[in-house]
From TrEMBL, chains A, B, C:
Higher taxonomy: Bacteria, Pseudomonadati, Planctomycetota, Planctomycetia, Planctomycetales
A Pfam family hit: DUF4432
Keywords: Signal
Name of this protein: DUF4432 domain-containing protein
Keyword Signal: yes
The UniProt record lists the keyword Signal: yes
Length: 415, 415, 415
């Protein structure tokens, strides 16, 4: 009488083995000249045993300056994450019930980089497409525009005008893949490759992976930057995570375990006392930028938290200070119509012009073939208990955390 | 027995009420990710009672640098107007029998702004797509390229290189709608919205409406510029209306009721005596630009007229000097192959660099939320009688018209 | 009994007459708003009597920065030539068995010019799309970036920043046609038109024709540059032919019959002794550029040859020094990952900034309506005998060839 069940079990096992190969689909591949305009997959097709109804959908936007822009929406059953392969795999928006990671930029469309001239307005052209929740800044450079040196085609040191926050957010991904595990916890993955690579220039590759589990309120970015060239190469990477209404409002606060906080300029120095607290939308507010050296646990892990006034909603970013030692907090609480937003921005550097950062020892280099990994975890915390738990994590880090010394840091303790 | 007729009347009335709702179609909407490639409507479908066979057609151009460019042709039965949503809702060409509003630019394609770098050639890149009959210049700035100040992201006064005639003609419309009245006079409307709006920059919205009646030889532009931001905002707007062969030819003349005519530079001063008269195509002709302060009637209404040599064809632009106090006449009667053209250009300013115009008090500002309306009427006059009537209008304005003083005007009377 | 054959002959003749009209297809025409995404023709349809199975195929690339890029593959039965109308009719790659004309650029995609800002990185933005085997440099200018004068819209001499190698390689063709002879030798032709033409700028037209015979290992480019404007116009044209692995390898050599070889700079001077010989890929190698004045036969015909180490494979370029008097050899034998490549570049000039070339008398002018023709023949030589024959041609030219004096040449004999 055991035969039948065994046969059944074998059959099932074989089936499961097959089924356990992850689901894989290439949505974009320049090598194969593929770029589907519409595509979707969902839990019913791919993971019928998963208790959460997830879906991954690709569409191509139409009209105005968003003509031809691809977006991918990952819905894990409780949270919707909208990615934009055309804009360097940035994240446009994350929604979990009434908690949203987004801001209301004066730029309403998802702008195709075809329409962006980064050099416009004295190197500030990047702003003409800027409306993402999460926008990578780099790879060859990020930070303020202005003159910096580089090596030109004849091997001479020459000068170029850097543009604000570099190119990566305005380079379409060359390859985009969806990978879904067929076994618990049924991880959903969107992978992308973006290149800043050309003759007499950098040969940098960004491989990025968004991972989210069905039913969870967190997601992870696993990024790898690789120097595909045969010579040492500088790079810069900053994660420009932007939060606006309604999470950001008067009384909201950013919590970071930190050794010190340095105002970016005199104007920021004047607001130093309340650097971590936010006012409501204020017409004419001029940005205040603070440069932090976060503390971390013994593994190098740290976290920043944006908490709303009622301590009822919060958003967190967790990362390793071994990978991203510096944190910039950008307070830009202007009027709603002008862009009411704060940026919480872990990076390899602060957003000065690269020439300043190089001088300060904050422009890392990659040896030929060398890779650097960056892992960031984003959490959406709803309800008093969840927010308190997150605040406690910050408190523990602040009390016991350590910094990793950066010998040439120009930051000075202010608190 | 009254029941039935009443029911019928109600039914009819309800039907008529429904039918009198204007016909409405959204051709492009970035908010809804809509952009139809092909679309058309005509009198048979929409206004079967209209005596004129009108049609409105949208198509998407293909090939070279015009790949993906949308154009809309409004045919009101006697006149064809070709609009280009992709190029800021400019008007490419107007045809009424053998009278055409157009010029033969060395640019033969309708260039997608994706291929235009406005900063090219010392800020003259705008010329690489310039071939419209009517092209708006603005909104943040227009006029000559060159250095001007602006307020950058950290609130400091910084310098930027302005580019010729600003960006608006190279920004695709975010929303395009067709509205047609179902009752006489069956007005045909094409509406568009174009944005120059981004963080640390202007938040300007252009809403434009082209209105034309079936069977008429005139059309109107109703434009509204709105400062959607929360801070005071400069703007500039100039309507670059361009006329070429065959309307423009040796012996053609521009008639404007005006207080004074100021040559733009020494070269224009040398041609001052014949500023209003045109020569035939002349290889090597260097542009001559004249700055006018038009007179207007007591409502502020004025008009400019381009009359052909035989006084048999003319084109007029009517507008209010309360809205657009300045008029620029651009004579560029080079060889046909090089671009034989004249511009008649009502504006908020003259086409100097914005820094010059600001100094002269000719850069208006919009308060937060404030709008400014501009209404222009274009007339195509065919036949001696029609042309004489238009000339008479100019004569009346010249004899009795008044100017509205602009205290800081730098123009000096020359005639 | 002769009647029937006669009738048959007549019939055949009539059929042949019809059949002898060349096959013609317009793939792209901006004038007609045509741009087919997919198209193909082959010998079975068009030339059933041709012994070689040829085909011509058009496709549109997808994904990343190559979205919407058109490529045309001409397969003549023994050789595949891939053209790119979207990138100024450049040639991406030529393959004949295991002999390939191509190089491995750090740019992996075929980049749509929509994504290229030529002014980027101090005027070196051209490099961000550069990966063609054959790329035209011009038309208004080519060579190094930097300041040069030009005449602006008001007729004044002004300054502009030239960008590396000009615009032509980043301008999509406005017209693309395929023409195939229906009679032997069944010539296959792809024709393209590219314009650098706008108000207050050049009015230059490039008409290019690729001609290849079925079964042959050579192909020809017949280019005509025309000044469509009414005023004299400078132009520059350089054929940037780029060769990489495996043809280029340690021990490869470039053979050119030449009067003299001038190093471009001190760094090139240091490598002068071995200017014609190639090393293997060398990380950190800085480009060495040599300026040549080729000798030619009494018709002005000359030739350059790249021979591999084993003298078993070679590629040749033949042209007239009456059309292209100057030759630049660009040695850039860096690491494979950085771009291991040599350029053999016949031109109207050397690749200095145009201001330098003008000073040296190497910037030709076209009178209004004037055309200049350029004919280049590319040969793929496989096997010792074929290579020896090509080398012999060079030897004959070197021994007996003449130069055409260029009075203002700045080159100095070095050998």
């Amino acid at each position: 009488m055991r035969t039948l069940p065994l046969a059944f079990a074998l059959c099932l096992s074989s089936h499961v083995a097959f089924a356990q190969e992850p689901f894989h689909e290439t949505l974009t591949s320049t090598a194969e000249s593929v770029n589907d305009e519409i595509w979707s997959a969902d839990s019913r097709q791919v993971t019928p045993n998963c208790e959460h109804d997830w879906s991954i959908t690709k569409e191509t936007l139409r009209g105005g300056r968003q003509e031809g822009v691809d977006i991918i929406t990952v819905d894990n059953g409780v949270m919707q994450i909208v990615l934009c392969p055309t804009r360097g795999m940035g994240i446009l928006k994350v929604t979990s019930g009434d908690l949203q990671l987004k801001w209301d930029s004066p730029v309403k469309e998802v702008v195709n980089p075809q329409f962006v001239n980064l050099a416009s307005r004295g190197g500030l052209g990047w702003l003409e497409g800027f409306n993402e929740f999460l926008c990578r800044c780099g790879l060859e450079n990020n930070g303020h525009p202005g003159t910096d040196k580089f090596i030109n085609n004849v091997g001479d040191e020459a000068e170029m005008e850097l543009t604000l926050h570099g190119k990566i957010a305005n380079i379409p991904a060359s390859k985009v893949e969806v990978v879904v595990d067929r076994k618990p916890p049924f991880a959903l993955r969107v992978k992308g490759q973006v290149y800043e690579s050309f003759l007499f220039g950098p040969k940098l590759q960004l491989q990025t992976e968004l991972v989210v589990l069905p039913g969870e309120n967190t997601f992870q970015l696993n990024d790898t930057i690789t120097n595909k060239g045969a010579q040492e190469q500088e790079f810069q990477l900053l994660y420009h995570a932007n939060f606006g209404s309604p999470l950001l409002a008067a009384g909201a606060e950013v919590l970071v375990p930190t050794h010190n906080v340095t105002p970016f300029n005199d104007h920021a120095a004047a607001g130093m006392k309340n650097w971590s607290k936010y006012e409501g939308p204020t017409a004419g507010f001029v940005e205040q930028v603070y440069l932090l050296k976060p503390k971390a646990d013994h593994n190098g892990h740290t976290m920043a938290l944006l908490v709303n006034r009622a301590t009822a909603q919060a958003a967190s970013i967790g990362w390793s200070i071994k990978q991203l030692p510096y944190l910039t907090v950008w307070k830009n609480t202007g009027a709603a119509a002008d862009g009411y937003v704060t940026g919480i921005e872990p990076g390899t550097n602060y957003p000065n012009n690269r020439s300043v950062e190089r001088e300060a020892g904050r422009v890392p280099k990659l040896a030929p073939g060398e890779s650097r990994e960056m892992t960031l975890t984003f959490g959406l915390h709803s309800g008093g208990n969840a927010v308190e738990a997150a605040i406690n994590q910050i408190t523990v880090l602040q009390m016991s955390g350590q910094g990793i010394d950066s010998p040439n840091s120009t930051t000075t303790p202010r608190q």
